[in-house]
Amino acid sequence: MVVAIAPWSIVLTPGQAEVIIPQADLQIKSAALPDELQDGSARTSVKLTYQSLASLDDGEEDDDEDEDEDEPPKGAAVTTVLCSLTPGKIEQSSCEIILEEDMEYILEAVGKNTIHLYGNYIDQAPVDQPPLDMDSDEDEDEDEEAYNLGEVSSDVEVEVDGDEAALDVEDLLDDDAPRFEEIHEEEPPKSLKRPRDDAMEVDEHEEKLSKSQKKKEAKKLKGTDGNAVPVLTPEKKVEGKTEKKEEEKKDKKKKDKAEKKEKKEKKEKKEKKEKSEQKDGEKKDKGDKKAERTLDGGVKVRDAKVGTGKMAKKGDTVEMRYIGKFLDDKIFDKNIKGKPFVFKLGQGDVIKGWDIGVVGMQIGGEREIVVPPSMGYGNKKIDGIPAGSTLKFEVKLLEIK
Fold this sequence. Notes:
Elements: E1 3-12, E2 18-20, E3 26-32, E4 44-51, H1 61-64, E5 77-85, E6 92-99, E7 105-110, E8 115-123, H2 136-146, H3 162-176, H4 196-208, H5 211-220, H6 235-286, E9 293-294, E10 300-305, E11 308-311, E12 317-326, E13 331-335, E14 341-344, H7 352-357, E15 362-363, E16 366-371, E17 391-400
Antiparallel strand pairs: 1-8, 2-7, 3-6, 3-8, 4-5, 4-7, 9-10, 10-16, 11-15, 12-13, 12-14, 12-17, 16-17
C-alpha cells in the first residue's frame, strides 16, 4: 500500500538538466505544459537518467558474456523518456513512476517549452499495517492446538471390568439414595358429573321427540301446585338468534370499515394529486437541471440525479462508483461494488475530464460525463482504449472528505 506523505513538484527548463536525490521514496504522477508556451506547436519530451542495478553475484560474470552486446552493463547510466507533450494535442500526461530514496536521478526537458512535474513523497510500508500473511499461519496452528482433543481422556474409552462396574453402580445408587424421594400419586376422586357421552345421548333423544310427544310429557310433569310444567325451548334456537345478531354486528362493522377505507383512499388520492401538481410546478421553476452542459475543454455533463449536502470542489478527496463506456455503450472499465475509487479532485490524480466533470456534484448524485480525447488519454492507446477515443462515464459520488 502506498501512502502519500508530502507533495513534490519541479519545473524543467529546456536545455537545463536537473539533478535530484529524493529524501524519501518519490512518486512522479503527472507532467503538464505551463500556461504560457514558448512555442505553440513544438513537442517537448521529459528524459530521465538513472543508474541501473549493479550485479549481486560476481560469479555470474561468465554468463553475462553470452548476453547481447547492445544491452547496457549493470550499474551503468540509463536514459529513458517519461512522456512527450504537444500543445493542443497532449498537454498533460500521467507518469506513475517511483524514484527510490537517496538515489541520484537526472531530469531534463528536451524541446522548446518548459514542463511542470508533480508528485508525492510516499511511504510504501506504513508502520501501522504489518505485512500480509505475517503470523497468520502461526495463529492458525495455535488455534488448532488449542482445540485439539486428541489428548483429552474420555470416560467412554476407559475399559472397566464387569464386576468393578457393577460395584461402582451400586455404590452410586447407595450414595444417591438420600437425595431421591419416591412419590405416590393418589387416585383422583370420582366425578359425580354425568359422562359427556351419556349427556349427548340424552340430547339426541330429546331432539328426536315430536311436538305432540313433548306436550304429552309436559302434561305428565306437574308442579307442586298441580299445574303442568311448561316445556323449555331448545337452546339451539336461542343460540341461533344470538349468532344471527353477532353476524349482523360483524356485517355492520365490515361495512363501516369499508366506508372509512374508501374515504381514506379518496383523501390520499387527492393529497397525492396535489403533491404531484406542486412538484411539477417546482420543476418548472427550477428549470431543466438534467439538461446537458458543456464545461471547459469540451467536457459535457448531464445530471441523472442531484445529490444532497455540500458540493465537491478542488482539493476534496472523493469516493466514486463509475462505469466507463465508449460512445457505442461498450464497457471498458467499471467500479460498481467493493472498495470505491478514491482520488483527490483537481490534483491531476485522474484525467482532466474527471477533474472538471466531478466538480459541483453532491453526495448521492449521479452524473454522465462525456470526455473528448484532449481531456482524456489523447492519442495514446491505454489498456484497451484506442487512441483518440471519446469516453463516456456514468459516475456516482458516495462521499466527500
